[in-house]
Specification:
Keywords: Kinase, Metal-binding, Transferase. It comes from Panicum hallii var. hallii. Belongs to the carbohydrate kinase PfkB family. The protein is of the alpha/beta class. It folds into two domains: 153 residues, UDP-N-acetylmuramoyl-L-alanine:D-glutamate ligase, CATH 3.40.1190.20; 223 residues, 3-Layer(aba) Sandwich (UDP-N-acetylmuramoyl-L-alanine:D-glutamate ligase), CATH 3.40.1190. The protein has 15 helices and 16 strands. Strand 6 and strand 7 form a beta hairpin. Helix 2 crosses helix 13 and helix 12 runs parallel beside helix 15.
Protein backbone atom coordinates (compact mmCIF):
# COMPACT_ATOMS: atom_id res chain seq x y z
CA UNK A 1 0.00 0.00 0.00
CA UNK A 2 2.89 2.35 0.69
CA UNK A 3 4.22 2.30 -2.87
CA UNK A 4 1.05 3.66 -4.59
CA UNK A 5 0.75 6.34 -1.89
CA UNK A 6 4.38 7.39 -2.45
CA UNK A 7 3.79 7.58 -6.19
CA UNK A 8 0.74 9.80 -5.63
CA UNK A 9 2.71 12.09 -3.30
CA UNK A 10 5.52 12.37 -5.86
CA UNK A 11 2.99 13.24 -8.58
CA UNK A 12 1.50 15.99 -6.37
CA UNK A 13 4.99 17.33 -5.61
CA UNK A 14 5.90 17.53 -9.29
CA UNK A 15 2.61 19.27 -10.07
CA UNK A 16 3.10 21.97 -7.44
CA UNK A 17 6.75 22.79 -8.10
CA UNK A 18 7.63 25.28 -10.83
CA UNK A 19 9.53 23.61 -13.67
CA UNK A 20 13.25 24.40 -13.91
CA UNK A 21 14.33 26.71 -16.73
CA UNK A 22 14.64 24.60 -19.88
CA UNK A 23 18.04 23.76 -21.32
CA UNK A 24 16.55 21.91 -24.30
CA UNK A 25 13.21 22.38 -26.10
CA UNK A 26 10.59 20.86 -23.80
CA UNK A 27 7.22 19.38 -24.76
CA UNK A 28 4.22 21.47 -23.71
CA UNK A 29 0.48 21.57 -24.48
CA UNK A 30 1.24 24.07 -27.26
CA UNK A 31 4.29 22.22 -28.58
CA UNK A 32 3.69 18.44 -28.34
CA UNK A 33 7.05 17.63 -29.96
CA UNK A 34 9.69 20.37 -30.35
CA UNK A 35 11.52 18.39 -33.04
CA UNK A 36 8.43 17.89 -35.17
CA UNK A 37 8.24 20.70 -37.73
CA UNK A 38 4.90 19.38 -39.02
CA UNK A 39 2.89 19.91 -35.83
CA UNK A 40 0.13 22.44 -36.48
CA UNK A 41 -1.24 24.28 -33.45
CA UNK A 42 -4.00 26.86 -33.66
CA UNK A 43 -3.30 29.99 -31.63
CA UNK A 44 -4.98 33.38 -31.68
CA UNK A 45 -3.04 35.79 -33.91
CA UNK A 46 -1.56 38.43 -31.61
CA UNK A 47 1.56 40.60 -31.79
CA UNK A 48 4.43 38.86 -29.96
CA UNK A 49 6.68 41.00 -27.73
CA UNK A 50 9.91 39.41 -26.47
CA UNK A 51 12.36 40.93 -23.99
CA UNK A 52 12.79 42.42 -20.55
CA UNK A 53 10.33 42.92 -17.72
CA UNK A 54 12.14 45.18 -15.27
CA UNK A 55 11.48 46.91 -11.97
CA UNK A 56 12.56 50.52 -12.46
CA UNK A 57 13.68 52.55 -9.44
CA UNK A 58 13.31 56.25 -10.22
CA UNK A 59 15.20 58.72 -8.03
CA UNK A 60 14.60 62.41 -8.67
CA UNK A 61 16.40 64.96 -6.44
CA UNK A 62 14.55 68.09 -5.40
CA UNK A 63 17.84 70.04 -5.24
CA UNK A 64 20.97 69.73 -7.43
CA UNK A 65 22.77 66.44 -6.57
CA UNK A 66 26.20 66.49 -4.91
CA UNK A 67 28.79 63.72 -5.47
CA UNK A 68 29.59 61.69 -2.37
CA UNK A 69 26.40 62.44 -0.43
CA UNK A 70 22.62 62.10 -0.55
CA UNK A 71 20.16 64.89 -1.28
CA UNK A 72 16.40 65.19 -0.65
CA UNK A 73 14.09 63.98 -3.38
CA UNK A 74 11.60 61.26 -4.36
CA UNK A 75 12.18 57.55 -5.02
CA UNK A 76 9.55 55.44 -6.77
CA UNK A 77 9.10 51.86 -7.94
CA UNK A 78 7.81 51.71 -11.51
CA UNK A 79 7.03 48.77 -13.81
CA UNK A 80 9.59 48.97 -16.61
CA UNK A 81 11.65 47.17 -19.21
CA UNK A 82 11.66 48.07 -22.90
CA UNK A 83 9.59 45.10 -24.11
CA UNK A 84 7.25 45.27 -21.10
CA UNK A 85 6.68 49.01 -21.62
CA UNK A 86 5.89 48.52 -25.29
CA UNK A 87 3.45 45.69 -24.53
CA UNK A 88 1.71 47.76 -21.84
CA UNK A 89 1.44 50.77 -24.15
CA UNK A 90 -0.10 48.60 -26.86
CA UNK A 91 -2.59 47.16 -24.34
CA UNK A 92 -3.69 50.66 -23.31
CA UNK A 93 -4.34 51.36 -26.99
CA UNK A 94 -6.51 48.25 -27.20
CA UNK A 95 -3.94 45.92 -28.82
CA UNK A 96 -3.35 42.84 -26.64
CA UNK A 97 0.02 41.22 -27.32
CA UNK A 98 1.64 37.94 -26.27
CA UNK A 99 4.58 38.71 -23.97
CA UNK A 100 7.59 36.38 -23.66
CA UNK A 101 9.88 37.31 -20.74
CA UNK A 102 11.35 36.23 -17.39
CA UNK A 103 11.18 37.43 -13.77
CA UNK A 104 12.51 36.09 -10.48
CA UNK A 105 10.44 34.57 -7.69
CA UNK A 106 11.04 37.61 -5.48
CA UNK A 107 9.43 40.87 -4.40
CA UNK A 108 10.24 42.64 -7.67
CA UNK A 109 8.93 39.74 -9.75
CA UNK A 110 5.71 39.57 -7.73
CA UNK A 111 5.30 43.35 -8.15
CA UNK A 112 5.60 43.10 -11.93
CA UNK A 113 3.35 40.06 -12.30
CA UNK A 114 0.68 41.44 -9.97
CA UNK A 115 0.40 44.56 -12.12
CA UNK A 116 0.40 42.48 -15.32
CA UNK A 117 -2.43 40.26 -14.08
CA UNK A 118 -4.43 43.21 -12.73
CA UNK A 119 -4.40 44.67 -16.24
CA UNK A 120 -5.85 41.41 -17.57
CA UNK A 121 -2.73 40.62 -19.62
CA UNK A 122 -1.49 37.12 -20.47
CA UNK A 123 1.35 35.64 -18.37
CA UNK A 124 1.65 32.32 -20.25
CA UNK A 125 4.95 33.30 -21.86
CA UNK A 126 6.51 34.80 -18.70
CA UNK A 127 8.92 32.45 -16.93
CA UNK A 128 9.20 32.96 -13.15
CA UNK A 129 12.40 31.41 -11.81
CA UNK A 130 13.27 30.51 -8.18
CA UNK A 131 16.48 31.88 -6.61
CA UNK A 132 16.98 34.42 -9.42
CA UNK A 133 16.88 38.18 -9.09
CA UNK A 134 14.26 39.95 -11.18
CA UNK A 135 15.83 42.46 -13.60
CA UNK A 136 16.11 45.89 -11.92
CA UNK A 137 17.20 49.26 -13.29
CA UNK A 138 18.01 52.13 -10.94
CA UNK A 139 17.83 55.60 -12.54
CA UNK A 140 18.73 59.02 -11.19
CA UNK A 141 17.17 62.04 -12.93
CA UNK A 142 17.75 65.76 -12.81
CA UNK A 143 15.03 68.28 -12.05
CA UNK A 144 13.93 68.45 -15.70
CA UNK A 145 13.42 64.70 -16.07
CA UNK A 146 16.67 64.00 -17.95
CA UNK A 147 18.57 60.86 -16.96
CA UNK A 148 21.81 61.65 -15.07
CA UNK A 149 22.96 58.09 -14.38
CA UNK A 150 21.59 54.57 -14.22
CA UNK A 151 22.58 51.01 -13.38
CA UNK A 152 20.90 48.01 -15.03
CA UNK A 153 20.93 44.49 -13.61
CA UNK A 154 19.22 42.34 -16.26
CA UNK A 155 21.21 39.11 -16.04
CA UNK A 156 18.06 36.98 -15.77
CA UNK A 157 17.00 37.98 -19.29
CA UNK A 158 20.35 36.92 -20.72
CA UNK A 159 20.44 33.67 -18.75
CA UNK A 160 16.87 32.38 -19.06
CA UNK A 161 15.39 33.78 -22.29
CA UNK A 162 17.08 30.93 -24.10
CA UNK A 163 16.38 29.66 -27.61
CA UNK A 164 14.56 26.67 -26.12
CA UNK A 165 12.20 28.92 -24.12
CA UNK A 166 11.42 30.99 -27.22
CA UNK A 167 10.94 27.81 -29.24
CA UNK A 168 8.07 26.75 -26.98
CA UNK A 169 6.06 29.63 -28.43
CA UNK A 170 7.00 29.18 -32.08
CA UNK A 171 3.33 28.81 -33.05
CA UNK A 172 2.50 32.18 -31.50
CA UNK A 173 5.46 33.70 -33.36
CA UNK A 174 4.71 32.20 -36.78
CA UNK A 175 1.04 33.19 -36.51
CA UNK A 176 1.61 36.76 -35.28
CA UNK A 177 0.84 39.89 -37.33
CA UNK A 178 4.24 41.18 -36.13
CA UNK A 179 7.02 40.32 -33.68
CA UNK A 180 9.05 42.77 -31.58
CA UNK A 181 12.11 41.89 -29.55
CA UNK A 182 14.45 44.02 -27.51
CA UNK A 183 18.22 43.73 -27.53
CA UNK A 184 18.33 42.53 -23.91
CA UNK A 185 18.05 39.05 -25.43
CA UNK A 186 21.40 37.24 -25.23
CA UNK A 187 23.52 37.01 -28.37
CA UNK A 188 23.28 33.20 -28.44
CA UNK A 189 19.48 33.40 -28.53
CA UNK A 190 19.65 35.95 -31.35
CA UNK A 191 22.13 33.79 -33.23
CA UNK A 192 20.10 30.63 -32.64
CA UNK A 193 17.08 32.57 -33.83
CA UNK A 194 18.71 33.18 -37.20
CA UNK A 195 21.06 30.27 -37.83
CA UNK A 196 20.13 26.58 -38.21
CA UNK A 197 21.16 24.46 -35.25
CA UNK A 198 22.36 20.85 -35.18
CA UNK A 199 20.34 18.60 -32.89
CA UNK A 200 21.44 14.96 -32.61
CA UNK A 201 23.12 15.22 -35.99
CA UNK A 202 20.01 16.55 -37.73
CA UNK A 203 19.53 20.10 -38.97
CA UNK A 204 16.67 21.76 -37.12
CA UNK A 205 15.22 25.03 -38.33
CA UNK A 206 16.04 27.98 -36.11
CA UNK A 207 14.16 28.50 -32.88
CA UNK A 208 12.74 31.89 -33.63
CA UNK A 209 13.52 34.30 -36.39
CA UNK A 210 13.13 32.20 -39.50
CA UNK A 211 9.86 31.00 -37.94
CA UNK A 212 8.74 34.61 -38.22
CA UNK A 213 10.82 35.45 -41.30
CA UNK A 214 9.84 32.38 -43.33
CA UNK A 215 6.21 32.82 -42.31
CA UNK A 216 6.22 36.39 -43.60
CA UNK A 217 5.90 37.88 -40.12
CA UNK A 218 7.50 41.35 -39.83
CA UNK A 219 10.15 41.63 -37.09
CA UNK A 220 11.05 44.82 -35.24
CA UNK A 221 14.36 45.07 -33.34
CA UNK A 222 14.44 47.57 -30.44
CA UNK A 223 18.13 48.45 -29.74
CA UNK A 224 17.74 49.24 -25.97
CA UNK A 225 21.20 50.83 -25.63
CA UNK A 226 24.30 51.71 -27.64
CA UNK A 227 26.18 48.61 -26.46
CA UNK A 228 23.30 46.17 -27.02
CA UNK A 229 22.25 47.73 -30.32
CA UNK A 230 25.31 46.08 -31.89
CA UNK A 231 23.69 42.69 -31.41
CA UNK A 232 21.79 43.31 -34.63
CA UNK A 233 24.88 42.51 -36.73
CA UNK A 234 24.32 38.74 -37.28
CA UNK A 235 20.57 39.10 -37.86
CA UNK A 236 20.19 42.32 -39.87
CA UNK A 237 18.87 40.57 -42.98
CA UNK A 238 15.91 39.20 -41.00
CA UNK A 239 14.85 42.54 -39.53
CA UNK A 240 11.91 44.42 -41.02
CA UNK A 241 12.27 47.53 -38.87
CA UNK A 242 14.44 48.93 -36.10
CA UNK A 243 13.98 52.02 -33.92
CA UNK A 244 17.34 53.48 -32.81
CA UNK A 245 18.23 56.94 -31.63
CA UNK A 246 21.11 58.80 -33.30
CA UNK A 247 23.98 57.14 -31.45
CA UNK A 248 22.42 53.66 -31.56
CA UNK A 249 21.97 54.07 -35.32
CA UNK A 250 25.67 54.83 -35.80
CA UNK A 251 26.69 51.96 -33.48
CA UNK A 252 24.52 49.52 -35.45
CA UNK A 253 25.99 50.65 -38.78
CA UNK A 254 29.55 50.36 -37.44
CA UNK A 255 28.83 46.87 -36.07
CA UNK A 256 28.11 45.80 -39.65
CA UNK A 257 30.98 47.77 -41.17
CA UNK A 258 34.30 47.27 -39.38
CA UNK A 259 36.43 49.27 -39.13
CA UNK A 260 34.44 52.27 -37.89
CA UNK A 261 33.11 54.32 -40.80
CA UNK A 262 30.19 56.27 -39.38
CA UNK A 263 30.17 59.08 -36.83
CA UNK A 264 27.68 61.30 -35.06
CA UNK A 265 28.56 64.68 -33.60
CA UNK A 266 25.83 66.33 -31.59
CA UNK A 267 24.95 69.76 -32.91
CA UNK A 268 25.40 72.75 -30.63
CA UNK A 269 22.21 74.42 -29.45
CA UNK A 270 20.25 75.51 -32.53
CA UNK A 271 16.98 77.43 -32.29
CA UNK A 272 16.21 76.91 -35.97
CA UNK A 273 14.51 73.48 -36.11
CA UNK A 274 14.71 73.24 -39.90
CA UNK A 275 18.46 73.83 -39.79
CA UNK A 276 18.86 71.20 -37.06
CA UNK A 277 16.89 68.65 -39.09
CA UNK A 278 18.99 69.30 -42.21
CA UNK A 279 22.19 68.87 -40.17
CA UNK A 280 20.92 65.59 -38.68
CA UNK A 281 19.93 64.25 -42.10
CA UNK A 282 23.35 65.08 -43.54
CA UNK A 283 25.07 63.47 -40.54
CA UNK A 284 22.93 60.32 -40.27
CA UNK A 285 21.83 59.52 -43.83
CA UNK A 286 25.03 57.55 -44.73
CA UNK A 287 24.43 55.17 -41.80
CA UNK A 288 20.70 54.91 -42.59
CA UNK A 289 21.29 54.08 -46.25
CA UNK A 290 24.00 51.57 -45.33
CA UNK A 291 21.66 49.68 -42.98
CA UNK A 292 19.04 49.45 -45.72
CA UNK A 293 21.71 47.95 -48.00
CA UNK A 294 22.42 45.34 -45.30
CA UNK A 295 18.84 44.07 -45.41
CA UNK A 296 16.91 46.10 -42.82
CA UNK A 297 13.69 47.18 -44.50
CA UNK A 298 12.82 50.30 -42.48
CA UNK A 299 14.40 52.61 -39.89
CA UNK A 300 12.50 54.78 -37.43
CA UNK A 301 15.24 57.01 -36.03
CA UNK A 302 14.25 58.97 -32.92
CA UNK A 303 15.78 62.44 -32.65
CA UNK A 304 14.47 63.65 -29.28
CA UNK A 305 13.01 67.14 -29.52
CA UNK A 306 13.86 67.17 -33.25
CA UNK A 307 11.31 64.47 -34.04
CA UNK A 308 11.74 61.28 -36.09
CA UNK A 309 13.23 60.15 -39.40
CA UNK A 310 11.52 57.34 -41.32
CA UNK A 311 13.91 55.76 -43.82
CA UNK A 312 12.78 52.92 -46.09
CA UNK A 313 12.30 51.68 -49.62
CA UNK A 314 9.20 52.98 -51.33
CA UNK A 315 7.48 49.60 -51.62
CA UNK A 316 7.91 48.70 -47.92
CA UNK A 317 4.79 47.14 -46.37
CA UNK A 318 5.12 46.44 -42.65
CA UNK A 319 2.06 44.30 -41.83
CA UNK A 320 1.52 42.02 -44.82
CA UNK A 321 -1.50 40.10 -43.53
CA UNK A 322 -4.06 42.47 -42.05
CA UNK A 323 -6.39 39.50 -41.50
CA UNK A 324 -4.24 38.68 -38.45
CA UNK A 325 -4.97 42.13 -36.98
CA UNK A 326 -7.99 43.10 -34.94
CA UNK A 327 -9.25 46.65 -35.27
CA UNK A 328 -10.01 48.10 -31.84
CA UNK A 329 -12.29 51.04 -30.97
CA UNK A 330 -9.12 53.07 -30.35
CA UNK A 331 -7.56 52.27 -33.74
CA UNK A 332 -10.89 52.74 -35.52
CA UNK A 333 -11.19 56.27 -34.14
CA UNK A 334 -7.61 57.06 -35.16
CA UNK A 335 -8.14 55.60 -38.63
CA UNK A 336 -11.23 57.75 -39.18
CA UNK A 337 -9.38 60.90 -38.14
CA UNK A 338 -6.17 60.27 -40.08
CA UNK A 339 -7.40 58.51 -43.21
CA UNK A 340 -5.74 59.95 -46.29
CA UNK A 341 -3.31 62.22 -44.44
CA UNK A 342 0.30 62.23 -45.68
CA UNK A 343 3.21 64.66 -45.68
CA UNK A 344 2.01 67.68 -47.66
CA UNK A 345 5.01 67.90 -50.03
CA UNK A 346 5.52 65.04 -52.50
CA UNK A 347 3.24 62.43 -50.84
CA UNK A 348 4.40 58.84 -51.36
CA UNK A 349 2.30 55.72 -50.88
CA UNK A 350 4.81 53.31 -49.33
CA UNK A 351 2.58 50.28 -49.62
CA UNK A 352 1.45 50.48 -53.25
CA UNK A 353 4.11 52.04 -55.46
CA UNK A 354 6.14 49.39 -57.21
CA UNK A 355 9.48 51.17 -57.68
CA UNK A 356 12.25 50.92 -55.13
CA UNK A 357 13.43 54.46 -54.47
CA UNK A 358 14.85 55.11 -51.01
CA UNK A 359 12.72 57.63 -49.12
CA UNK A 360 13.38 59.60 -45.95
CA UNK A 361 10.60 61.44 -44.14
CA UNK A 362 10.84 63.79 -41.19
CA UNK A 363 8.06 63.96 -38.59
CA UNK A 364 8.44 66.72 -36.00
CA UNK A 365 8.11 66.31 -32.24
CA UNK A 366 5.28 68.05 -30.39
CA UNK A 367 6.05 70.59 -27.68
CA UNK A 368 5.24 69.19 -24.24
CA UNK A 369 5.41 70.03 -20.53
CA UNK A 370 8.14 67.53 -19.63
CA UNK A 371 7.91 65.65 -16.33
CA UNK A 372 9.96 62.53 -17.18
CA UNK A 373 11.58 61.36 -20.40
CA UNK A 374 11.80 57.70 -19.34
CA UNK A 375 9.44 55.56 -21.37
CA UNK A 376 8.91 58.07 -24.18
CA UNK A 377 10.80 55.98 -26.76
CA UNK A 378 8.97 52.82 -25.69
CA UNK A 379 5.62 54.61 -26.00
CA UNK A 380 6.57 55.77 -29.47
CA UNK A 381 7.29 52.18 -30.54
CA UNK A 382 4.18 50.83 -28.79
CA UNK A 383 2.05 53.45 -30.53
CA UNK A 384 3.57 52.63 -33.92
CA UNK A 385 3.02 48.88 -33.55
CA UNK A 386 -0.53 49.24 -32.22
CA UNK A 387 -1.46 51.59 -35.07
CA UNK A 388 0.05 49.26 -37.69
CA UNK A 389 -1.98 46.39 -36.26
CA UNK A 390 -5.05 48.64 -36.44
CA UNK A 391 -4.72 49.16 -40.18
CA UNK A 392 -2.95 52.53 -40.37
CA UNK A 393 -0.05 53.07 -42.75
CA UNK A 394 3.58 53.57 -41.77
CA UNK A 395 3.66 57.36 -41.71
CA UNK A 396 0.34 57.65 -39.89
CA UNK A 397 1.50 55.05 -37.36
CA UNK A 398 4.73 56.89 -36.61
CA UNK A 399 2.75 60.14 -36.19
CA UNK A 400 0.59 58.34 -33.62
CA UNK A 401 3.75 57.08 -31.90
CA UNK A 402 5.06 60.66 -31.68
CA UNK A 403 1.74 61.79 -30.16
CA UNK A 404 1.81 59.04 -27.53
CA UNK A 405 5.46 59.83 -26.72
CA UNK A 406 4.29 63.36 -25.92
CA UNK A 407 1.70 61.96 -23.49
CA UNK A 408 4.47 59.86 -21.91
CA UNK A 409 6.85 62.75 -21.18
CA UNK A 410 3.98 64.59 -19.48
CA UNK A 411 3.45 61.64 -17.09
CA UNK A 412 5.35 60.40 -14.03
CA UNK A 413 4.85 56.76 -15.09
CA UNK A 414 6.71 55.08 -17.94
CA UNK A 415 3.34 54.51 -19.61
CA UNK A 416 0.59 57.11 -19.02
CA UNK A 417 -2.34 55.79 -16.97
CA UNK A 418 -4.86 57.17 -19.45
CA UNK A 419 -4.30 57.72 -23.17
CA UNK A 420 -7.06 59.66 -24.92
CA UNK A 421 -7.83 58.69 -28.50
CA UNK A 422 -9.14 62.19 -29.16
CA UNK A 423 -5.99 63.97 -27.98
CA UNK A 424 -3.70 61.42 -29.68
CA UNK A 425 -5.48 61.84 -33.01
CA UNK A 426 -5.39 65.64 -32.69
CA UNK A 427 -1.65 65.60 -31.95
CA UNK A 428 -0.99 63.05 -34.72
CA UNK A 429 -2.78 65.31 -37.21
CA UNK A 430 -0.48 68.18 -36.19
CA UNK A 431 2.54 65.95 -36.78
CA UNK A 432 1.32 64.90 -40.24
CA UNK A 433 0.58 68.49 -41.25
CA UNK A 434 4.21 69.40 -40.54
CA UNK A 435 5.76 66.19 -41.92
CA UNK A 436 8.18 66.50 -44.85
CA UNK A 437 9.70 64.27 -47.49
CA UNK A 438 13.45 64.92 -47.21
CA UNK A 439 14.70 62.44 -49.81
CA UNK A 440 13.16 60.11 -52.37
CA UNK A 441 15.58 58.90 -55.05
Amino acid sequence: MAEPANRRMEAVRRHLLLPPPPSQPQPSPLCPNPLSSHTVVEVEPRPVIIGGMVLDIHAKPSVPPHPGTTVPGTVKYVSGGVARNIAECMAKLGTRSFMISVVGNDMAGDFLLKYWRSAGLCTEGILQVHDVATPVVSNVFDGSGELIAGVASVGAVEKFLTPSWLYRFRHHISNAPLVMLDANLPPDSLEAACISQKVDGNIMLSYFFPVAYESGVPVLFEPVSVVKSRRIAPIAEYITCTSPNEIELVAMANSLSPPVKYNYHKMEQCKDKAEAVEYLFEMLSPAMFFLLEKGIKMLVVTLGSNGVFICCKEHTDFVKDQRKCKQTPFSKQLLEKLDGRFPSNNPVDLCRESCSRTCVFHLPAISASVISLTGAGDCLVGGVLSALCGGLDIIQSVAIGVAIAKASVESQANIPDHISAASVSDDAQKVLLSARTLWCK
